[in-house]
Amino acid sequence: MAIMIKTPQEIEKMRRSGHIVRQVLELVRSLVVPGATTMDLEVAAEKKIAELGAVSAFKGYHGYPCVLCTSVNHEVVHGIPSQKRVLREGDIVSVDCGVVLDGFYGDSAVTIPVGRNVPQEVQKLLDVTRGSLEQAIQEVKVGASLGDIGAAVQQHVEADGFSVVRDFVGHGIGAKMHEDPQIPNYGRRGQGVKLKAGMVLAIEPMVNAGSPEVKVLEDGWTAVTVDGSLSAHFEHTVAVTENGPVVLTL
Ligand code: MF3
Ligand code: CO
After folding, report:
1. Which candidate among 55, 121, 141, 190 keeps its CA 20 to 30 Å from the CA of 151?
2. Mutation test residue for ligand 1: of 38, 49, 58, the one with most atoms within 8 Å of CB
3. Domain assignment of residue 223, yes or no
């Protein structure tokens, strides 16, 4: 399928959906405390999305039941909020949210430490994963290639001994949540699709502390690390413009 080029007006619409996603994630961050359940986060997020006049991109997507994905510790992505899942001091939780407003999507994720006593090694996993997304965003310019993005993530992650998940990738985004191209978090500089002004990319490194292998649980959604090691995930929706990257989920 062709890669859709967005007009500046469409990118402005995506900035509005992206801003709503950010507000939801900031609200959720304030609620991530020991003793909270992942369903508490879901309930607050669903209410906030409605208040802000948007519609969840996730709920109902291929039957997905919630507005958030909440992936705790060794869960990589697509964890389903549950009243039974109580967050404990020292856990980490990836919170992923997407909305659609006026026909255009925004998609972002953050991994949040629970409480103030997250071990240094765990904090490092979060810092390196966020850092790999920042490095990737710096590669987003007209004429760069998708391989530059993947290589930037991979280099940053592997330099610290962590591993990049390969079974899930980022994606183009616009009038649909998932558009072409796929955006792997590994690759080689100079390879793959060349970036053009008006492309919008959801870049989302998923990083494991141990081996890169993941599997999907019986619920058909929750992806976990095969070796049980911790996993982190950060995502931004980013427009390619003549003036470089514009992060729309701020
Ligand atoms: N942000 C994720 C993605 O880009 C999660 C979507 S999965 C869903 O693919 F089913 F919850 F929608
Ligand atoms: Co996404």
Report:
1. 121
2. 58
3. yes
Give the global pTM: 0.98
CATH of the domain at 223: 3.90.230.10
Give how many domains the chain has, as a whole number.
1
Q: Copy the structure tokens of residue 20.
A: 């709503």
Judge contact between 149 and 187, C-beta under 8 A: yes
pLDDT by residue for the chain (250 residues), tens only, comes to 799 999 999 999 999 999 999 999 999 999 999 999 999 999 999 999 999 999 999 999 999 999 999 999 999 999 999 999 999 999 999 999 999 999 999 999 999 999 999 999 999 999 999 999 999 999 999 999 999 999 999 999 999 999 999 999 999 999 999 999 999 999 999 999 999 999 999 999 999 999 999 999 999 999 999 999 999 999 999 999 999 999 999 9
Dist. CA 110 → ligand 2 center (Å):
11
Residue at 111 is within a domain = yes
Q: Give the range of the structural domain holding residue 152, as residue numbers without chain letter.
A: 8-244
Whether 2 maps to a domain, the answer reads: no
For residue 202, give the ligand 1 atom closest to its CA: 4
Nearest to 234 by CA among 40, 103, 92, 34: 92
Spacing, Cα 170 to ligand 1 middle (Å): 10
